[in-house]
Structures are given as C-alpha cells and as structure tokens.
Amino acid sequence: QVQLVESGGGSVRAGGSLRLSCAASVVSISCMGWFRQTPGKWREGVAWWDSYGNSDVADSVKGRFAISRDTATNTFDLQMNNLEPDDTATYYCATRPLFGPCGDSGLSESTYGIWGQGTQVTVYS
User: Fold this and answer.
1) pLDDT confidence tier of residue 103, bands split at 50, 70 and 90
2) In whole angstroms, how far apart are CA 19 and each of 64, 96, 106, 122?
C-alpha cells in the first residue's frame, strides 16, 4: 500500500511563500494531486501532476501555486507564492493505485483513493 506523508506547512504572513512536500513510499506514481480543506467545506482540488507530462492548477491559485516532482527525493512539491488568508487550510496530497494519466479529473477528489494525513497552512494578514 502506497503511503504519502506531507510536510512543509506552517504559519506565514499574507504575501509570503511556503513549499509543501509530499513524500511517497513508492516511485511508481503516475497521478498525484494536492487538495485543501477548511472545516465545514468540501475538499478542494488545488493542483495535479501526472507522469505523462501533464499538470495544472486550480483557477483560484493560478499564477501563485505550482506543482512539481523532485525525482531525487521522490517528493511531489507544491510551491505556494503570494499567499492569501483565504489559502488557510489543511493541505493533502493524494494518489491512486491505478497507473495512468490523471486525464480531465486531476482536480476531482473521486480520482484518488490514497491520501496523506495533511499539513496545516495558516496565512495571517
């Protein structure tokens, strides 16, 4: 069973940056997503990456967030710049046991079945 562990969360002033990392226990990851959730709200897709050269971010973070893979450490990173208080949430990485591209559903929670435990990001003004 694949295990995912997020790190890099913390508190930052608005306008600042954070880099989240998701460490995977296996290297054969073909589709990876980052999500965030605040209490009482649905989990929101933030960014996704697949091993076929595709990636994207949600419109709400476009131009500020970027997803990438570090093959040396086998981590999937979410670089977050120009953070806003509305970015405050618990951030999760997710993958799935099936091998293949994310397709058009990279930001959909139902695409994934394996989740990390989450890391808290707090942005204060």
Assistant:
1) confident
2) 12, 23, 20, 13
